[in-house]
Amino acid sequence: METELPELFRRQSAATGHVYTFHAARAAMRTVNREELAAMVGKAADCARSVSDAQVDVIAYACLVAVMAQGAGAHTGSEKVIAEAAEGNGHPAAVVSSAGALVRTLPALGARRVAIVTPYMAPLTAMVREYIEAEGIEVLDAVSLEVDDNLAVGRLDPAALPGIARGLRREGADAVVLSACVQMPSLAAVQRVEDELGLPVVTAATATTYEILTALGHQPAIPDAGRLLAGPLTTAR
């Protein structure tokens, strides 16, 4: 998220002339497991207070799986906690979460059946699948890359994603979630996979960017990042 969002907003700035600043507060995590994910959730309010000091317009809660590990619909409560923390600090802001952005953006694209790629161990991927399906979106296939070290996830090569996407069971799919994780790099592969498969390709990062821009009242105009961010969103069925 700390690399792909600035790049996406750089492209948006080049296309529209809008100027954006990017601020971050971090909650530490080394191993992607339920215990460390739960600890991250406990730090969300402190991080929100810290970043709200910059008087930001939108706060994005980046860790998708930390929210989803809390159970179905948890993004609603997480977004509320962050909004209240920022407001309590005297700097209210709109709030989106990557978990909420993903499950809201897929239906906005007209996607009710998807195939997904995650870097997680299989039990966490199953949990993500259940969370998405609880929102009324059928997951036709889910690939786990079985990487539990958080830094190693951030160093995965996006050049491998087209081959992984080709192996997904996609019959009847409306979209592909190429990275159901904000830590796993995927931006470099999004447009290539979308062009090759002929399906909309979404990632946790592109969905979050879409919702940030929507909260700002800005129309996405980002090239080479999939149809979600290319311009006015239509749902051709």
TrEMBL record:
Pfam families attached here? Answer: Amdase
Q: Which domain of life is it from?
A: Bacteria
Among Gene3D superfamilies, the record links this protein to: 3.40.50.12500
By its UniProt entry, which PANTHER family does this protein fall under?
Answer: BLR3294 PROTEIN (PTHR40267)
Task: Tell me the protein's name.
Answer: Asp/Glu racemase
State the organism of origin.
Pseudonocardia acidicola
